[in-house]
Model the fold of this input.
Amino acid sequence: MCGIVGLFLKDRALETRLGELLTGMLVTMSDRGPDSAGVAVYRACSNGRGKLTVQSGSPDSDFTELAEDLGPVVGRDVGVERKDTHAVLTLPAEGIGRAREALPEVRPGIRVMSDGSAIEIYKEVGLPGEVAERFGIPGMSGSHGIGHTRMATESAVTTEGAHPYSTGSDQCLVHNGSLSNHNALRRRLHREGMRIESDNDTEVGAAYLTWKMAHGASLGEALEDSIHDLDGFYTFVVGTRDGFGVLRDPIACKPAVLAETDSFVAFGSEYRALVDLPGFHDAAVWEPEPAQVYFWTH
Done:
């Protein structure tokens, strides 16, 4: 079944409350998916630095001296901010690729959740409220974010099976539904050089959008193409460095609600996820149309 939420802030005065508001929305969706949960938060780095968010099943050993071991690879200082089983590595933006290549040798037990100039992804097995508290999501600031609470259908209940999925710099996807042609599409994308590490159909959808955008498509164009290339039933919420997009398949059997005010745009799988947002009583509220792309950017 799964539950999705998204919050795009127009009013910068609300940015200090992004994590708090997003957590409240996600917790409201707990009964739609109690298996695992995840959040992508966008908050930009400065001074030409980028971020790698990583996860480990053995964080005490894997994160110890990680900065010292990666420093020679990227040629400059690496910062490591641990958050439970995850850590955010800050490093020169041009060194992200080298760091990703070195991690399997330096720390084989570490998995990369996301990379870019703004994105941080945190996801684990457990109820949404518990996962959010483990990572301190309520206290995070940012410009926009998306979240997902999962009821597993396509793959096991593991960290790797949780959403969001990130397959490109500052890009991620959360998904409610099922893609019926994901195995054939996975093989095609592998041949195109795309990295797909799980057996989850959502990661294939994320990689498809990344592949399209890598070949010159805008987010809106990539989402429009997916209507023709992806079989199944789905609601997508996509995050990028500058904003987010929403798409429902042509049948639109998965629930979805959008709300917009002068201060924010919000998405929820159900109306109840949105009602506690500040100023919601003034919002324009509507159900996204089937096969229509919606997106907002800063």
About this structure: The chain has a mean pLDDT of 94.
